[in-house]
Amino acid sequence: MRIAMISEHASPLSALGGVDAGGQNAHVAELSAALAEQGHEVRVYTRRDDPDLPVVVAANGFEVVHVPAGPARTLAKDDLLPFMGDFAEWTAADWRGTWLPDVVHAHFWMSGLAAVTAARRHDVPVLLTYHALGSVKRRHQGANDTSPQHRVAYERQLGRVADRVVVQCQDEIRELIAMGVPRSSMALVPSGVNTTLFRPGGPAEPRDPARPRILTVGRLVERKGYEDVVRALPAVPGAELVVVGGPPEGRLDDHPYARRLRALAEECGVAGRVRLAGAVPTGDMPRWYRSADVLAAAPWYEPFGLTPLEAMACGVPVVGTAVGGLTDTVVDGVTGDLVPPRDPRNLGTALRRLLGDDLRRVSYAAAAADRAAHSYSWRRVAARLAAVYATVAGRTLSTTTDSPREAVV
Ligand code: UDP
User: Fold this and answer.
1) Which residues line ligand 1 (CB under 6 A)?
2) Any coiled-coil ranges, and where (predicted)?
């Protein structure tokens, strides 16, 4: 098949760990590479955010197309909506040439808008993965949510016009049903993990063997719950906490949230046991996971959550919050322990218990590595998705609703 991925803000070529570059970038990069490996032709359309970028860049068996839409510089993803019309026009024109996709898979709601508009011109089916839902974000972030005003309405409409909504976990199905998206249009295919890169054994970052290491990883944003992990640390005597993500280590002093975490660590009397490591290149991530005794993943909410899966694939148990994708990936009491979100007390207890029980940790570690390798390899995930693509290829978009943009604005 010829598969067009649309990922308006999340380029598969970006460095991860910054404010708007995380799981979606990794997902699009790995999925595209795995589909290409299985013989499909894949092109990823992403916004040109640097004037020096060539229009087409060859990546890992697939092509990345930089779409001129809006200024050629980095913009916050919440500011990209006005440029989605241009994005769609340019992409539709590109498909007028020699390369017409069999299916279009959009990642994130704004890509969905561009995908539906462009695909309609050519009668090509559209699949949508939301990656994150505006309704969930609004519930948790309230007034701090900077999403465009009509995001939730757009997402609802997109769920009704897309040929398939590819959901990543059970929790998302519940949310979408509540939004009125028909269950019959949903296909559950989780994200995956690169099991060649993320595997047990292999080199690890140096550490103090006398001191248990708790690792936590991701973009340095409030909803990832790092403050809860710092607050839990007094209940885990002797352990060190390493936080990976955010800007490069040398620029952490200028990062307001990094400063806030350091101040909190002082307040909790654990500053000497908390280390902020800054952004780590993806290729080095396995070394950091392998250096840890446990991954603490404490988001308030999490659409899927790659870091718990990456840790599991490296044979590291997870103590996580029972939210979103973690309730599917982490098997409570088998590959890790799940605790309620925003609850440092329970988090601290679970971490102390696990770090104090070698047998339990070793058995969680083995079960975690098995589960990640068998159920979440990209090869397996890509094959499942290709089967979903095949069911919609050749079918056209629903014609009962106008373009979601026109319908909502
Ligand atoms: N990541 C990375 N370097 C960092 C921090 C994070 O490569 O310094 C990667 C991490 O390995 C994972 C992704 O960024 O692949 C984060 O994905 P996740 O789904 O956990 O969170 P999101 O950022 O999508 O909210």
Assistant:
1) 16-17, 22-24, 26, 217-219, 244-245, 279-280, 282, 285, 304-307, 310
2) none
